[in-house]
Amino acid sequence: MPNSLDLPGLPKDNRIVVAMSGGVDSSVVAGLLKREGYDVVGITLQLYDHGEATHRKGACCAGQDIHDARRVAERLDIPHYVLDYESRFREAVIDRFADSYIAGETPVPCIACNQTVKFSDLLATAQGLGAAALATGHYVATQPLPSGHRGLFRPADLDRDQSYFLFATTQAQLDFVRFPLGGLTKPETRAIARELGLEIADKHDSQDICFVPGGRYADVIARLRPHAAEPGEVVHLDGAVLGRHEGIIHYTIGQRRGLGVAAGEPLYVVALDAARRRVIVGPRSALAVRRLVLRDVNWLGDRPLSDHGAEGVEIFARVRSTRSPQPARLVSAGGVVEVELLGEEAGVAAGQACVFYAGEEAGTRVLGGGWIERSRRSEGAEAALARLAAAEPLATN
């Protein structure tokens, strides 16, 4: 007979590994599944700097979080294991983040962590323990499809929607992973934590990237890649050199404040030229993007993307986790995948993710996504960037 996780047999016949971060969400998942009678095993990953991370607020995977996960497991009377994944995390997430950043990109390490450490390595560990599924506290949902596979869907609580960070989950992984919180709101989750008698019911949510305390990306990159903080020029789109900077790692696309140059108009960072160590600035209009070229696309639609032909497929595209999906067209031709936005986006940078949806409402299906390799601006901005790429630096004003 079916059960709440769409698994064959009774709950007691199914071992479920729960990825327990020590936070409210994953703790409630473990508690709900234990209450329903599943054979629950909790696993917490030690990912980064256990000693220094202890008691650090706003970061996941810290020493205090491991302690909290252990106490929750004791309260629920389930076995709990802490696995040391620090070396794997550094290789698959931190090093990739640093290399992408110094290349002038804006990486999203939480996606890489889900893609590698959590839904590859931890998933394999769960299977090795004889689990029928791996459950996490993400606010997304999976549902059975007519094909026999499972689809990925936006949650009921769009304020907590984490589907952007899970676009790279493969079909095989989706068939094995479960997200029990997909139909709940955060207040409902906290209420359940209180019902279960969990002391972490009112614990604050993680906000920082675990290895970037306080959001100080440049400090982390300078420590990991000391050569990356090399000075260079701040150049206007028209070719004028406006000043100097102390390293492109201190800048992001769309940045306005802290440019260190004076001009008669508001200026924004419109491009980062890592090869020439240039920060390229220009008017806000130069940030407008309507076309994106993607790499490493993970397509989760029912039909292969190539079957849609030259006309492509209508989707809703999301270029940042904090933005809503907007109408777009996804086209795959000649081995190149592009997204044509019906509107415009500003501040789009290489290294970010573009995630595909069938719509924009709660419960909408996630159709996959890809990493932004480059964006295409207006003809004027593209021409100016091409001239700068070909020309030698001009004398400083």
TrEMBL record:
Region Interaction with tRNA, residue ranges: 160-162
Species, as recorded: Kaistia soli DSM 19436
Function: Catalyzes the 2-thiolation of uridine at the wobble position (U34) of tRNA, leading to the formation of s(2)U34.
tRNA-specific 2-thiouridylase MnmA-like C-terminal domain location: 290-372
NCBIfam families: PRK00143.1, trmU
Keyword list, A-Z: ATP-binding, Cytoplasm, Disulfide bond, Methyltransferase, Nucleotide-binding, RNA-binding, Transferase, tRNA processing, tRNA-binding
Positions of the catalytic residues: 113 (nucleophile), 210 (cysteine persulfide intermediate)
Binding site for ATP: 19-26, 45, 137
Subcellular compartments: Cytoplasm
GO cellular component, one term: cytoplasm
Gene: mnmA
Name used for this protein in its record: tRNA-specific 2-thiouridylase MnmA
Residue span, tRNA-specific 2-thiouridylase MnmA-like central domain: 229-282
Record site feature (Interaction with tRNA), residues: 138, 352
Alphabetized PANTHER family for the sequence: MITOCHONDRIAL TRNA-SPECIFIC 2-THIOURIDYLASE 1, TRNA 5-METHYLAMINOMETHYL-2-THIOURIDYLATE -METHYLTRANSFERASE
Catalytically driven reaction(s): S-sulfanyl-L-cysteinyl-[protein] + uridine(34) in tRNA + AH2 + ATP = 2-thiouridine(34) in tRNA + L-cysteinyl-[protein] + A + AMP + diphosphate + H(+)
A Pfam family: tRNA_Me_trans_C
Gene Ontology molecular function: any one: methyltransferase activity
